[in-house]
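Deliverable D4.2, example record:
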Amino acid sequence: MELADAVRRRRMVRSFSGEPLSPAVLDRVLELACSAPSAGNTGGWDAVVMAGPDETAPFWDATTTAEWRARSRRWPGLACAPVVVALFVAPDAYPARYREPDKQDSGLGEGIDAWPVPYWFVDGGFAALVMLLAAADAGLGACFLGNFRGEAALRAALGVPEDRRYIGAVLMGDPGGDDPPSASVARGGRQPSDVLHRATW
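Output generated by the structure prediction step:
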């Protein structure tokens, strides 16, 4: 698939068939994500890859509540995702990298407060987007779930070091049948003429 086709085809799929994902396909998606851009080539993100209901159950237990599951129209489809990739970033890795000789003149080695933009979140977002595009290229459904609750519980359940921040998870698998459209779709998308400012605003 051409890149343009993958970009146009990509959408947030929130209902999955539950069929297991081929390990070879999953590995290809994850390997592509490892090529995502990273500030200073810091590579300050890690992923916990969970496949199958036994491995994904702790994710759902930490990040959802029984009340939410009971009222969510999306829960039945989301719960069938055969793969959940939880993404974590390491903020402290960035000042450490920028204290190295080739970057020390930047002044960003002083600590995370010296960073006008928290590039650990940017880099994690790059990795998530590559996963989403690679999943579309492989003919899979995928979506990104943000970090709304349960970060500490999820770190504990998965054995993630406390210095890492959870940013969200990419779910992947064969699309399922019932996938209610998001209410956000009704807003429509912005056109290039609304977004792009040539030479000046």
